[in-house]
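Data deposition worksheet. Section B asks for the primary sequence of the deposited chain exactly as it was used as input, without tags or linkers unless they were present during the calculation. Section C holds the resulting structure in C-alpha cell form. Section D is free text for depositor observations; keep each observation to a single sentence. Incomplete worksheets are returned to the depositor.
Section A, Depositor: J.P.
Section B:
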Amino acid sequence: MSAGEQRATSFGSVADSYDKVRPGPAPAAVDWLLPPECSIAVDLAAGTGLFSRALEGRVPQVVAVEPDARMRDVLAARSTGTTLLAGQAEAIPLPDAYADAVFVSTAWHWFDPGLAAREIARVLKDGGRLGIVWTSRDREADWVAELDVLRAAGEPATVAQVRAKLDRHHSVALPGDAAFGPARTASFGFTRTLTIEDTLDWLATSSGVITAGQADREAGRARSRAALTARSADGRMIEMPLRSWCWQADRLPR
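Section C:
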C-alpha cells in the first residue's frame, strides 16, 4: 500500500472520535448546495455520516456510499435515516440517472477526479447537482493555522505551507470532457465552542497524525495543548472559527 493509500484509509482507525469531534457543515452551506428540488441525494465517501445527517430531514431519501467498513459501522449506528452502501467514488453502486444530487464532504482530494467525475455524471439525473464541500477550522486566523504546524512534525512546517495545502485540497479540476456546466463557489463561516481535550482529539483525526509514530503524536499533542491553553480564557474551553468551503456544478443534459 502506498503512503497516499495508507493515509486515505487511515480514518477508520479513529472512526468513533472522528464522528464525535469533527464538525458537520454550516447549515447555510447545505442550503446553498442543495438544488431547488431534491428527492434523492447521495453522500459519496460519507465517512461516519456527518454530511448525511445534515441532509436528513431536508431530503426524502439520503444514500451514503462509504468504502471503509469501520466508518460504515459508525454511520449505521448514528445516521439511522440514511441508506448505507459499501462503495467508492470511482465505482458507485447505483444505477444510471438515479440521484438529484451527489455530495462530497471533505473527501474530493482523495479521489481520482477523472474516474469520479464520470461515475458521478452517470449516477446523476440530467440537471442534477454535484456539490463538494470542505468543513474545517478557518486557517485565515494565524493561531488556527499554526495548530496544523504544531500537531505533527514535518510538513506543513509554516503557516504559508498550511494555507497552500488547503488551497490544493479545496480545488476542483474536472476533466475537459466532464458532463457538467459552469462551476460556482461560496464559503460560509461559523464558530464552535469546544473543550481543549475535544480540540486535541479533533487535531488527531488528521491522516498525517494518525499515520505518524506514537512519539510524534504525543509530542504534537503536547505542543498543541500548550498553544490552546494559552489561547483559552479559562484553560478549558476554546472558541474555534470554522468555515465550509463549497463548490457546485450541474449535470449537462445527456
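Section D:
The chain has a mean pLDDT of 92.
The chain is about 40% helix and 25% strand.
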